[in-house]
Amino acid sequence: MNKARxxxxxxxxxxxxxxxxxxxxxxPVFVILINxxxxxxxxxxEPLALPDAESFSMIGYQTVxxxxxxxxxxxxxxxxxxxxxxxxxxxxxxxxxxxxxxRFKGNTLMGLYLALGIMIPIRIGTVAILEMMVAGGLVxxxxxxxxxxxxxxxxxxxxxxxxxxxxxxxDLKNAARVDGLSEYAIFFQLVLPLVRPAMATxxxxxxxxxxxxxxxxxxxxxxxxxxxxxxxxxxxxGQFVTDWxxxxxxxxxxxxxxxxxxxxxxxxxxxxxxxxxxx
Amino acid sequence: xxxxxxxxxxxxxxxxxxxxxxxxMIFPLFNTLRLxxxxxxxxxxxxxxxxxxxxLFFDPFWSEQFWNALGNNFWFFIVHMLxxxxxxxxxxxxxxxxxxRFAALYRSAIFIPTILSFVIVGFAWKLILSPIWGIAPSMxxxxxxxxxxxxxxxxxxxxxxxxxxxxxxxxVGIPMMLIYAALLSIPEEIIEAGEVDGITGISAFWKIxxxxxxxxxxxxxxxxxxxxxxxxxxxxxxxxxxxxPDFSTDILGTFMYRTFFGFQLQLGDPHMGSxxxxxxxxxxxxxxxxxxxGIQTRMRRYQM
Lengths: 279, 304
Fold this sequence. Notes:
The complex is a heterodimer of chains A (279) and B (304). By secondary structure, chain A is mainly α.
């Protein structure tokens, strides 16, 4: 139909540009992963070669397993992330329902108040947060992290979920009211299942920043038994700077869980990002 | 009748979110601003008014570090605006091309760095750029540019820009996705109307699509601004709390961390830390206000 839009030269140029950038994006990850399976000698002699029978070695992973408690770190990260998502989704959906469903005095004001936190980073309040956690005896517990991340995740969750809840048909809810369902039953049995896609979007948005955060674990929970995977690998790598096998293996072990999560959830994430959920 | 009753369920629905948010986010925020007005003398907290800010801005020891961190932070932001956002827009423009094959594959692959933590990204690049390992020099050698190589992260004049570019590498995915979404929402009829008038290809992008996606570019700019002025992790992971070499990569986040927790010979000072946090708050607030009142309201929005 139109030459300019199907010109083969253009197509080649576009693919060329995209492939080039994809290589730039993936190259560092690739180099780290392949070298983590090589002997020290091979890492330095041919850093870009794939591991073969001669250069293959798991020595780095053995060091990591022996020296660092990566399973514990992983478990801590998992607990913090899952618990936070649970609270963000539950509390966020409840508040979003109240804002979207009922007309009451101060509704708009409450919405604005909760939305403030979308733009203002919670890190600004770190000094006072630490003081509060010390006073509450929550330092070096996973609860400190869960609370902070829940507060951090709520504003955007409320904002996105209330947009979606406004789209749930009023007739449906009113029919349920006529049937005698309580407002709580309407929320939990009717509305929540209907906004599940939006909840998935919120969950995926929150997951990555929480999993990757270094600031709050460093400040609120640096103890050995509460280290998250991000902090754990940071400290481990700092101690083993000269042991290249161990450093590369630790990096790979930190990359892997996120990569697996990404493969599972990338559709959800990309759909969320591109559906205009963040306006 | 129904209206007259107190509707307790509204309070029940709102309470958990409002309580957690107020207690952990809003209250500490204001408490931090308040703590900036105090100081510790002989284990006792006393009110000193704006003394901490006076120290921060005018005491030579502090002000030199503060202005250095602020200046570095601005440079960090400028590099993002000049490199990250144009690349993101360009990638999105290519990806949104109709009938492009493998678009989803490219999109997912280019987004991968964004999901990695700063710790991984910082160390991975540190290793790759390291003169000991020699991946960067040997790759430059391959294209005949070996003479250009130097240990960028270790040189005062290059370290900050190098870190900014690493951060750009990591976050290009976000502007790419948001612009991509904006480009997809442009109705086909508008593009076709342009084609009838002979506007196609590159000029269609500049004359039709770019004006339509300006609001999205505005959002990306403010997101970048807030993210950059609150950055910390990458610098800390790659260069440590001292933001070496010789503080050349120090930004407000690392400066605040050092002040708050202390390092080497200097003791941690939560009150000076609060003063720096207040400064960061003011800068971010200023940026958000400029965006909301200066840019967003004046931007022309086209009905689509």
